[in-house]
């Protein structure tokens, strides 16, 4: 067999493997789609694969979903769309600023200043709550502000101990995603509840849920955009600095346009995280601002999980992200390849 024949055979094997993987990937979506058109007896009576051959399709699950029998679908959909879009935009913008600063400017954080922040913040909170009689929210705000000001002041002096650089700061941001989400969600719920007692309603509000998702998304945005900004040439920025262009104009007028593919890739990834997030929406909402994952999880009855209704709701939750990824796919792939994910 010649070298050309070997290459041709190898190409066919690779094509067959890719085709098999494509079918394996699409089959769960196909199964969810056909299940949404099945009757209960078709779901519990055994596996059926082909509409009009193995079973007779019905629109019952879709009619129940859109008519409101299975929950406030349109309210949940628009809550997801508004919160996910706004949180992703804000997180991408703020995270891009932080990532750019971590790439272009050196930071030195002395470890003892961080220890001082922790000690003063925790001690001040306990002092304000248990001795001075402040409510937990007021005590935490006062302690945090004092601890932050003190740590920034102390960090200016030469202190013994290690000095943390930009890479350590990035690691600290990423490490925030290592905590179990249930810990953060429960802490936020307690904080929001205390703020509600003070007259600032945060649970089941747009602002409260969006703020939680922005904080939840910032570490991943900073991590992705930092690698992308590190691959951008600095010549144009240096030329602008020579012409006395302000730093904020360099960032918004030069850096952001050059990093458009990376921003889009990061935005889509962040949007996917927020769109599919379940735990924060479960803890921080109860009716008005509940999102689609809560609706999907609620598609059951006293008889158990009703998979035909779950499939219809899940398919509706999947379709918007597929459309967005397809619409922005080319620019997203460009951003990923140029360093948004390494």
Describe this structure in words.
This protein is an all-alpha fold and 342 residues long. It folds into two domains: 71-107 and 165-340, MetI-like (MetI-like fold); 108-164, no CATH class. It is built from 16 helices and four strands. A two-stranded antiparallel ribbon has the order 1-2. It has a two-stranded antiparallel sheet with strand order 3-4. It is globular and about 80 Å long.
In short:
The protein has 342 residues and is mostly helical. Helices cover 74% and strands 2% of the residues.
Give the SSE string.
Answer: HHHHEHHEHHHHHHHHEEHH
* Strand ordering within the main sheet: 1-2
Q: Tell me, rounded to a whole number, the average pLDDT.
A: 83
Net shape: globular
Cα-atom radius of gyration: 26 Å
End-to-end Cα distance, whole Å, is 40 Å
Name given to the CATH homologous superfamily of the largest domain: MetI-like
């Amino acid at each position: 067999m010649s070298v050309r024949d070997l290459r041709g055979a190898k190409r066919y094997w690779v094509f067959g493997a890719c085709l098999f993987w494509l079918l394996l990937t699409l089959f769960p979506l196909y199964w969810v789609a056909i299940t949404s058109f099945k009757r209960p007896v078709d779901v519990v009576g055994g596996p059926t694969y082909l509409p009009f051959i193995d079973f007779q399709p019905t629109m019952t699950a879709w009619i129940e979903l859109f008519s409101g029998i299975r929950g406030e679908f349109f309210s949940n959909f628009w809550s997801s769309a508004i919160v996910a879009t706004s949180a992703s935009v804000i997180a991408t913008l703020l995270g891009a600023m932080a990532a750019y600063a971590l790439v272009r400017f050196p930071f030195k954080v002395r470890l003892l200043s961080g220890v001082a922040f922790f000690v003063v913040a925790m001690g001040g909170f306990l002092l304000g709550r248990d001795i001075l009689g402040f409510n937990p929210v007021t005590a935490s705000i006062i302690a945090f502000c004092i601890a932050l000001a003190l740590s920034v002041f102390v960090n200016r002096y030469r202190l013994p101990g290690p000095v943390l650089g930009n890479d350590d700061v990035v690691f600290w941001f990423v490490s925030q995603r290592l905590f179990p989400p249930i810990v953060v969600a429960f802490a936020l719920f307690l904080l929001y509840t205390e703020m509600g007692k003070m007259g600032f309603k945060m649970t089941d509000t747009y602002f409260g849920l969006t703020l939680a998702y922005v904080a939840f998304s910032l570490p991943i945005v900073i991590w992705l955009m930092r690698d992308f900004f590190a691959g951008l040439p600095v010549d144009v920025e240096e030329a602008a600095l020579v012409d006395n262009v302000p730093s904020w104009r360099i960032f918004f007028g030069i850096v952001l346009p050059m990093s458009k593919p990376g921003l889009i890739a990061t935005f889509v990834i962040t949007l996917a995280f927020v769109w599919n997030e379940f735990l924060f929406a479960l803890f921080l909402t109860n009716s008005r601002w509940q999102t689609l994952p809560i609706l999907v999880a609620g598609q059951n009855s006293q008889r158990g999980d009703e998979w035909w209704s779950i499939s219809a709701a899940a398919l509706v939750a999947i379709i918007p992200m597929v459309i967005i990824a397809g619409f922005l796919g080319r620019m997203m792939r460009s951003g990923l390849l140029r360093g948004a994910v390494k």
